[in-house]
Amino acid sequence: MELYQKSAVELSAMLRRKDCSAREILSSVYARIDGAEDRVGAYVTLTREKAFEQADAVDAKIAAGEQLHPLAGIPVGVKDNICTKGVATTCSSRMLENFVPPYNATVVERLMQAGMVMTGKLNMDEFAMGSSCETSYFKKTHNPRDLSRVPGGSSGGSAAAVASGEAVVALGSDTGGSIRQPAAYCGVVGLKPTYGTVSRYGLVAFASSLDQIGPMARTVTDTAMLYGVLCGHDRMDATSVLREYPSFTSGLDGNVAGLRIGVPREYFSAGVDASVKEKVQEALSLLERNGAVIREISLPNTDGALAAYYILACAEASSNLARFDGVKYGYRAKDYTSLNDMYEKTRSEGFGDEVKRRILLGTFVLSSGYYDAYYKKAKLFQKKLSAEFEEAFADCDVIATPTAPNTAFRIGENVDDPLKMYASDVCTVTVNIASLPAISVPCGVDAAGLPVGLQLIGSRYSEQTLLRAAFGYETLVGGFDGVAALS
Amino acid sequence: MKIDIRHIAKLSKIRIEDQEIPKFEKDMERIIGMVEQLPDISGMDLSPNPADAMQLREDVAVSDKYTRNELLANAPQVQAGCIVVPKTVE
Amino acid sequence: MKYETIVGLEVHAELSTDSKIYCDCKNAFGMEVNTQVCPICMGMPGTLPTLNKKVVEYAVKMGHALGCTINTVSKQDRKNYFYPDLPKAYQISQSDIPLCENGSLTILVDGVEKTIGVTRIHIEEDAGKLLHDDSFAGSLVDLNRCGVPLIEIVSEPDMRSSADAKAYLETIREILMYLGISDCKMQEGSIRCDINVSVRKEGDTQFGTRVEMKNVNSFSGAVRAIEYEAQRQIEVLEAGGTISQETRRWDDAQGKNFLLRSKEDAHDYRYFPEPDLRTIVISPEEVARLKDELPELPNKKLARYVTELGLSQKDAALIVENLDKSMLFDETVALGLCQPKNLSNWILGDISKYMNETSRSILDTPLTPKRLGSLIQSIEQGKISNASGKIVFDAILHEDKDPETVIQEKRMAQVSDADALTQIAQQVLQANEKSVTDYKNGKTNALGFLVGQCMKLSKGQANPAMMKEIITALLQQ
């Protein structure tokens, strides 16, 4: 087994025992990148030189006998909507093709403090708008489990890098399922944390009230460890919550006995592929046989969630993306006759169609005369849905659903049908609307051999419970598939 | 529902060429059709939640965090320490 | 046909905090372009705002000063529009729940008190500046002012003339200065206003259509702008036209306004709650504490000066309108050394003159309230003459000495001893027999000459009033 195929936990132990160096780990990951990247296309930018400097710094500290964070020396990929000082942060958009931030996102500072080694910046749907990575201005990312298929999105590059071994772990961001859906499609683990637990400072905003950065990895334990690095209060983010966090790895005992799992019937409706339902049911049966208590529940407001999500997310996006006007940074059109002409040309040439569609929708729902009918109604729905979840959590510890209604589709299959694309978010958007945490873990493959995702949703700040349940499942299935073979 | 795509595009400062209008119009109308499925909610209001209070920042100024060159390095056009834009006329 | 002018004002005042409203950049005026900025106030991708506590406190203080209800739970909203001086392409402001609302302000116009309703006070961020130069094809953007904290004070349409508006603006400025929350420097743009004007026929109860005027940069400009706009509207109506709801731009140099945008082109700001900030919650204790911290406000002070201290309305107003003068006045009165009326004369006379000539704040000079009080006391007690008082005043300012020291050093103590004065008078009468004869022959102006000689002999130290009395008595013997 090559170093790049190992988990962060294994590599951390090896570093500690001096069985390998951080440089050797990084070399192995970079060798994999060099061998696989032309088929996978996970990265927008590679930061090879900086990465080796960081790895060498970790090795020097180990040699000096310094106490290091367990994740020190572990290669991590970062989604390209998370600002990195001195390294281009493009959001996979022509608009930010040459944007080099003079600051780090808070999460990047945290990775650096832990001594993690950044491999590069990962491809995504443009400005995180999409569910397939196909709206990236730069490249299509291929699903390492089946290269003819999409990796999901918007954190498709992150999921693909982790699944292919081009990174040991990665950061994604999740506004409506952008960590969990690609995790499901690529057969890896992805955690969307409770809103406010991970700083958004330096995350290029799509929908501020829904966006959350989270960890992606091949094992639950690696996910838990990385989440432990990311979470915590940040005074630079006014929406960051002040609270104490437990150790997320210490409670992982593999025991699911007594775990109360709610299964909402609305998430198993007609729109969900039969094979996906089957795999999720199998996973639930396995958990039940091992002592978990399964109870069917109802979340009747699920149906409106997709509508509310697109209203809220697009409304905020229309405002968040207004700053890309060709003035202070980013793309500016070449020829223009006036200020307004410069604005319109810059934004028309700099943004792709999906981004434009969402800006238009968001502008429309906020425009004079329509605010109450759309935005306000969606905000009310959000309150209602949150209350509904809260009630449900009175009787269960976690809620289990499919992560996505389907498995990875073929590249190009849905690009011309925005609504069909939006439908792949149907199981995940509720979690963002209600500010909840949720994790997606692989639960087998469909007839075509494509991974299916099991989503576990928790109440606010219940990441520890979620990670325990996910680890319990991982233990029961004898571990998840490791790095994809890319055959 | 019919949407005045030109008006919305103007508000968004996005130019949509004439030949693209029908496509955007159709996409938008379908999306609006979808979002209109949102049910009516009664018995709730949207007044700000005092339990969601934020911590305010102390009024302490910090200077020289960045150089002007660093901050203007991404600007498309700079002159005399300023960002250049097409002439604005009130 | 007589018309009535209806005016409502939106005053924007920059707050004099140390840091900006949403980032820790310095809130400073007049610095080199684009040096007081950071990724947050430049609106760089991924950056987030954090609200400055002082801004909330200052706004609440203003709310208290204007008798507003303070909303202990409020929020912020985004106002979306594109312009190069607005880096995020939205301004963080407050829309439906301002920090303060439902207040009022009493103004004095031609000796008559009027109460003007204050609809609301909210907090928001300032935009940057665009610099234009005819020699250059483009415009230059300086973002230093981005994120400077503002309060916007919105009045009810309760003013009926440009004089009302001027008094309102001046009163608002006085209060801001008294609270110490704004520099109020018009020339630096730290107070600006938008003006809503409508007219109606006298006797009508319905308001006419209002027109908003922007770009008014001085109080005198506000007067001109209101008068111009009211006249413009009257002319339109008299010619049988109608007023359309629009925004016009005031050009003070030309003394005219120009259409900026019609109702059809009005901005659609697409306000919605700012998702990057959570609820602003101020505890009732905090609200009460800020109220307790309010200084005596100008209108209260004015009333006290007139009714308790016996100043004329005019003098009291002149002292109150200047924070330095009123502080010096209050502190000196508190020492109880001199009469408030005499003190007021000094402050409005020599001290104002000195302040104007040197453009210094009187609070930064060696003239302490104690020195000023004892200087005036010495005059009141007849120890020194008024003329000597002026010399002592100069010496205090230029030599940083106590008045007692100056009086002693310059031997200015006035001679008020009757025996000593009689001695001087007798000497003068003996030496000027001709004048004595003239006086006795009815040439009364000889008296002035004789008193003058006495003063000369005493080197100016004789108490002139007593001197005159004694000479007169001796001559009549």
Tell me what the structure shows.
- Helices cover 38% and strands 13% of the residues of chain A.
- Chain A has 487 residues and is of the alpha/beta class.
- In chain A, strands 1-3-2-4-6-5-10-11-9-7-8 form an eleven-stranded mixed sheet, sandwiched between helices.
- Helix content of chain B is 31%, strand content 8%.
- With 477 residues, chain C is of the alpha+beta class.
- Chain C folds into three domains: 3-286, no CATH class; 296-409, no CATH class; 418-475, Arc Repressor Mutant, subunit A (Orthogonal Bundle), CATH 1.10.10.410.
- In chain C, 40% of the residues lie in helices and 21% in strands.
- Chain C contains 15 helices and 16 strands.
- Chain C has helices at 53-65, 162-179, 219-238, 284-292, 298-307, 313-320, 323-335, 340-358, 369-380, 386-399, 403-409, 418-431, 433-440, 446-457, 464-475, and strands at residues 3-14, 69-70, 73-74, 77-80, 90-93, 100-109, 112-125, 129-132, 138-142, 149-155, 191-201, 211-216, 246-251, 256-262, 272-273, 280-281.
- A nine-stranded mixed sheet of chain C has the order 2-6-7-10-1-11-12-13-14. Chain C has a three-stranded antiparallel sheet with strand order 5-4-15, with no helix packed on it. A two-stranded antiparallel sheet of chain C has the order 3-16.
- In chain C, helix 12 (418-431) packs across helix 14.
- Chains A and B meet through helix 9, helix 10, helix 11, helix 12 and helix 13 of A and helix 1, helix 2 and strand 2 of B.
- Strand 2 (82-86) of chain B pairs antiparallel with strand 9 of chain C, so a sheet runs across the interface.
Distance between the termini of chain C: 77 Å
Structural class of chain C: alpha+beta
Mean pLDDT of chain B: 91
Strand content of chain C: 15-25%
What is the number of beta strands of chain C? 16
**Rough outline of chain C:** elongated
Major beta sheet summary of chain B:
2 strands, antiparallel
The tally of helices of chain B reads 3
Structural class of chain B: alpha+beta
Annotation, overall tally of beta strands of chain B: 2
Q: Which residues of chain B form runs of ≥5 with pLDDT under 50?
A: none
* First-to-last CA distance of chain B: 36 Å
Greatest contact between two chains: A-B, 60 and 42 residues
Summarize the structure.
Chain A has 487 residues and is of the alpha/beta class. Chain A has 15 helices and 11 strands. Chain C is an alpha+beta fold.
